[in-house]
Specification:
The structure is a homodimer. Chain A is built from 17 helices and 20 strands. By secondary structure, chain A is α/β, with parallel strands linked by helices. Chain A has two domains: 2-266, 4-Layer Sandwich (Nitrilase/N-carbamoyl-D-aminoacid amidohydrolase), CATH 3.60.110.10; 271-468, Rossmann fold, CATH 3.40.50. The first copy, chain A, has a seven-stranded mixed β-sheet, with helices on one face. In chain A, strands 6-7-8-9-12-13 form a six-stranded mixed β-sheet. In chain A, helix 5 crosses helix 11, helix 6 crosses helix 11 and helix 8 crosses helix 9 (376-397). Chain A starts with a strand and ends in a 29-residue tail after the last helix. Chains A and B meet through helix 2, helix 5, helix 8 and helix 9 of A and helix 2, helix 5, helix 8 and helix 9 of B.
Chain lengths: 550, 550
């Protein structure tokens, strides 16, 4: 049997666009005499459709689009993800389904059994879990058809009561198909490969795994669809971060014939993976919103420098504009470094000194603030004057403002709400400061793009004379480690101090994270590259007492 | 058997505070020779604890607090909501449980079967559903103990596969207890009473229903705990929007002896309910965050006027400060109306003209914008200058900025991001404009508090000469109806136009709602008073194609 895997970039809600894309792949597969073509989870509507699923007109369009595929299935089996309707009158109204279409007919609909509802996933909000399993038979071959999470309840992490493959394997399928929408994080690759290997070994079958690629708001899908043999060896991986289409022949002994093994891994370390993911994240945020041009404030610091480079990679230098917004507290080198970067990247820029509007606010507020010392108020005022200027360019010319805050800042609230926290999209808000520095070095690996001075100088917000981040925060090598243990690893104060960190610093950092939930609630959507990003995957209450932590 | 219902206001995360409150009620009940005291769902930690549930130290503290209650249970049964640990090694790590404590011992732990995961609820994110039911026996009496959603799977809306009371009723309980955390919406009361009646009739038992009161960020809990007899008649309702403690005697024939029937309904229409709910919402947002003082921009319009009155009711006039921020486009009557309100409410205010900083921005942007006409950019600039001034007061003096946007504006994006959309809490963001007007009339029912002129003048943002809301939006009586049908009733264009609305207007309104998801993503938390508020209960994608609607 010849099988095609279609790894595609779908647009959430754009059912007609997705359908046309799917039809093109089916035709391509027909021309290659493929027996069965496999698309990803909820391909027809894009993943995650979220509350669009609650709208009847959305579901109707999805079902009609699936119907429209029947006419292309005369000689080829099609496996495609789409919602289906629960007609039992009990439970949630929808299933998350895999349709098996062949000979101009929907032959079978397989429903997802295990519905991820944690972190960024909320599938039980919409779907009823399948209560029974069923095999599909295509051209006399038994195939176990599963959907994403259905194969993940293995190893130590048994968060569901059962495994659909326990039942399905009794029917001796020649192989397993898993259609997925599995978002990228920099450590997801290893976990995913382990899961696939474990399933192949446990059930002694090959596995064809099809993931989508592309970004939908904060979630980035990396593709990397996988073919593994019955020993659990990965014999092929599709491309990372781009569409791909490949065919495979599997014989009746479940042997996969492949010309040469291909792991398709262009990006082989955390920093290169994150960089590539973020470029795709920006590209799809703009492209899928029918937007073209980005603007950002360029401070001379490393965060905005890295963001600018990523934006240029994603959108082209002609579509990125930088605004330099120096104040009385900005150092000369900051402006010079920012200018140098714009010139290297061939990016259009303007320099607008913020002193005049800042002083104007100081004047009108003087009667009220007269006897109060310069404090965080005036620091925030500068950040907000900058945001106002950037948003005015955005409104006047249709640029989208990119937010340049890193994860360390976002975590501890070291940023001004309605100031430097502004933006339509946060590019590096899931990247800790130390990793932003590594990204800058990675960007510079062949030649100096980001000025060396930007990379090596001590981080500063430059909102008062001689300010450094380390005046109010621990050094980033300490801070980032504590944040990682608290946010990603969910460790408590005792566990972190037991690993050798100073208890007072740990308490201070965790306290800063906890008291800034209200700020993050109003933050721009953050491109997710870690397994625990700020945003929809982390739902901490705003009004709550966090003293139990200390 | 003498039963006490303890309707209390818990603080999410503040386990020690909650425990002390609970102990006080137990002692009060002991003194009244109560046999069984009942607290609400997850009382020990407050509802909703959200991702605090994922932290071991949080769970440990909850479990220790439950243990601490044992010593108070020698002569009195205690029913209390708290998380418990799933020790089976399969499924989610926690249950949402009701503990039955008596004779210094945890006698039984009953787990919740039906886990709401829709709208603002996400319980399947944390909890494993109970797979079996069990009765409790207190002083030789069989009692069916259920948790909130466990009794809701009746009537037409069968979103779960089964009902725990089907099994429990086979064991012939004398009565049913339901411990709940059921948030307020203005139409929730009828629905809740129907559900309780239906259960009593169906299973032929009395029902004691205990709800929490108090607000936790956007969710407001109204209390209104209920006692219904076996015929489904509501024989007592506890107070609305405040703590309450009552005792009841039920005899062996399941007859509830009550001195006089008491429906405890101080607030008997939608507008009075919403008003009272929002006051509690503000009060608890501040109180539970250890904040005292609010600030807001007072425009002379109805939205900020109503918000100011609610804030004064919640916090006291000494804790509310108003800033009047007129521009060249502000009418005299706006300033006069705002001043009159401050004087009536005895609220401290300042008047700060925004022309100077606004012109300062116009000056520095002139080289870039020179040939472009005055447009929405300059309108937004004014709103952002105002926000900057308000936030400067907030930062300098520790006020929390109240957002004054109404639901109609928030829906269609008629507001400036980082401008009038700023604030720590959105007070009336779930109240349509027409209802805001009704709230103003309700506030004025005994005497003119909000100037009549504020109520009757045509709504205007006053961001350019002679501007009216109706220049760019349908009249509010049309707009609000279309919005309600789309947002609350989830109707599509055809369904709405079939009800007599102009198709082009319907399409325009729905399009405006859909293209403004990115703005709402960065909005302040909105106090929820309807059954579909913007915020965590409505998860529409930002990057998506919405054309399937049209």
């Amino acid at each position: 049997m010849k099988i095609a895997l279609a790894q595609q970039n779908f647009h959430v809600g754009n059912i007609e666009f997705n359908k046309q894309k799917i039809i093109q792949s089916i035709i391509k597969a027909q021309n290659a005499e493929v027996d069965l073509i496999v698309f990803s989870e909820l391909a027809i509507c894009g993943y995650p459709p979220k509350d669009l699923l609650l709208h009847d007109s959305f579901i109707t369009k999805c079902l009609l689009a699936v119907e429209d595929l029947k006419e292309y299935s005369k000689n080829i089996g099609i496996i495609i993800g789409a919602p289906s309707v629960n007609k039992t009158g009990k439970g949630k109204k929808l299933y998350n389904s895999a349709y098996y279409i062949y000979e101009n007919k929907i032959q079978k609909i397989i429903n997802k059994s295990l519905l991820p509802t944690y972190d960024v996933f909320d599938e039980y909000r919409y779907f009823e879990p399948a209560k029974e399993t069923d095999i599909i038979v295509h051209k006399n071959t038994n195939i176990a058809l599963t959907i994403c999470e259905d194969i993940w309840n293995v190893d130590k992490n048994l968060i569901y009561q059962y495994n659909p493959l326990d039942d399905l394997s009794l029917k001796q399928p020649l192989f397993v198909i898993n259609i997925a929408a599995s978002p990228f994080s920099y450590n997801q690759r290893d976990e995913r490969e382990n899961i696939i290997r474990t399933n192949c070994e446990k059930y002694n079958t090959p596995l064809f795994y099809v993931n989508q690629i592309g970004a939908n708001t904060e979630l980035i899908f990396d593709g990397e669809s996988i073919v593994a043999n019955k020993e659990g060896k990965i014999v092929c991986k599709l491309n990372s971060f781009e569409e791909d289409f490949r065919t495979f022949i599997i014989d009746n002994n479940a042997t996969i014939n492949i010309e040469k093994e291909d792991k398709g891994e262009q990006f082989n370390n955390k920093i290169s993976l994150i960089t590539e993911a973020l470029v795709l994240g920006i590209k799809d945020y703009f492209g899928k919103s029918h937007l073209k041009r980005a603007i950002l404030g360029l401070s001379g610091g490393i965060d905005s420098a890295v963001t600018l480079v990523l934006a240029v990679k994603a959108l082209g230098n002609e579509n990125v504009k930088a605004i330099l917004l120096p104040s009385a507290f900005s150092s000369d080198h900051s402006v010079n470094d920012a200018v140098a970067l714009c010139e290297t990247m061939k990016v259009d820029y303007e320099t607008i000194n913020i002193e005049q509007p800042f002083q104007s606010f100081m004047n009108i507020l003087d009667p009220y603030f007269a006897n109060k010392p310069f404090d965080i108020t005036e620091e925030n005022m500068q950040a907000r004057v900058r945001a106002l200027i950037l948003m005015s360019f955005s409104n006047k010319f249709g640029y989208i403002l990119l937010n340049t805050s890193n994860k360390s800042e976002v975590a501890v609230g070291y940023g001004t709400l309605y100031g430097d926290m502004c933006g339509g999209l946060s590019v590096i808000g899931d990247v800790y400061k130390q990793d932003v520095c590594k990204m800058a070095e990675y960007i510079n690996k062949d030649k100096e793009i980001i000025p060396i001075n930007t990379i090596i100088k001590p981080p500063s917000a430059e909102l008062r004379p001689d300010q450094k981040d380390s005046d109010s925060l621990p050094e980033y090598d300490i801070l980032d480690k504590i944040l990682f243990k608290y946010i990603e690893e969910n460790k408590n104060i005792k566990q972190i101090t037991d690993e050798g960190f100073d208890e007072n610093i740990v308490k201070k950092v965790i306290r800063l994270v906890n008291i800034n939930e209200h700020k993050r609630h109003q933050a721009a959507p953050i491109l997710r590259v870690s397994h625990k990003a700020f945003g929809s995957g982390r739902c901490m209450p705003i009004v709550a007492d966090y003293n139990f932590f200390y």
